[in-house]
Amino acid sequence: MTATTRLLVVLLVVLPLGLTTGYAAQAETAHGVQGSERAAVQTGPACTTNAVRGQRPRRASINGIGSGITVVRTPRTRTGAIGAPPTTRAGKKVLGWDPQTKPGSGTGSVILTAHTWPDGSALGNRLLRKLRRGGSFVLRAADGRRVCYDVVERRSYRANRLPRSKAFRPWGPEQAVIVVCSGRRTGPGKWSHRTVWYAKPSP
């Protein structure tokens, strides 16, 4: 057997092994992703904040859910309760923003809300299905400036046990919180629980 022939034999043996190893690595990676989902962890794309001051958000992009989500201002009720988007077909697709704290201001909770519908078609339903710890989202102003957030915690609370001092604080380092109804539906607009995502501004 000549040197050239021996080289061809080696290549024919090694190349399939290399492809098999690569396939196994991909399969292991895919399995790892599934395991992370079971552990309620996901990894979002890197994002860099370019806001220079607190700004009013107009659009949102949420990891695993979509981009170009409309953000609407939702003033508080007369009793001081957090507002919510309109209960309409258009309102079920938008993200509500409480105007007391602007994204990029550096202090307090940026409070966001979304509806959950019993047929599973609202933005809140999609958040419950797909957004986990380790995910990310971006809030954009009308001029395109953005503030990026990384989800650090996801918690479910009974509707009457929501930790307001933790979720809705006007003090301390900036955080963003998303609040949606969850659990068991007990009547029109009434659910047994609230799910809250806590997020920190991306470094």
Provide a descriptive summary of the structure in words.
The chain is α+β, with helices and mostly antiparallel strands. It folds into two domains: 1-39; 59-201, Beta Barrel (Sortase, Chain: A), CATH 2.40.260. The protein is built from three helices and eight strands. The chain has an eight-stranded mixed barrel with strand order 1-2-3-4-7-8-6-5. A hairpin with a 2-residue loop joins strand 7 (175-187) and strand 8. It is globular, with a radius of gyration of 23 Å. Mean pLDDT is 82; it is low at 1-40.
Assembly type of the chains comes to: single chain
Specify the structural class. Answer: alpha+beta
User: In percent, how much strand structure appears in the residues?
Assistant: 25-35%
Beta strands, count? 8
- Sequence of secondary-structure elements: HEEEEHEEHEE
Please give the radius of gyration in angstroms: 23 Å
The helix fraction, in percent, is 10-25%
CATH class of the largest domain: Mainly Beta
Mean pLDDT: 82
Total number of domains: 2
List the total number of helices. Answer: 3
Note the overall shape: globular
CATH architecture of the largest domain: Beta Barrel
The strand order across the widest sheet is: 1-2-3-4-7-8-6-5
Brief digest:
This protein has two domains: 1-39; 59-201, Sortase (Sortase, Chain: A), CATH 2.40.260.10. 24% of the residues lie in helices and 32% in strands. With 203 residues, it is α+β, with helices and mostly antiparallel strands.
How does the SSE layout of this entry go?
Layout: H1 3-38, E1 59-62, E2 66-73, E3 95-97, E4 109-114, H2 123-130, E5 136-140, E6 146-158, H3 164-167, E7 175-187, E8 190-201
Parallel strand pairs: 2-3, 4-7
Antiparallel strand pairs: 1-2, 1-5, 3-4, 5-6, 6-8, 7-8
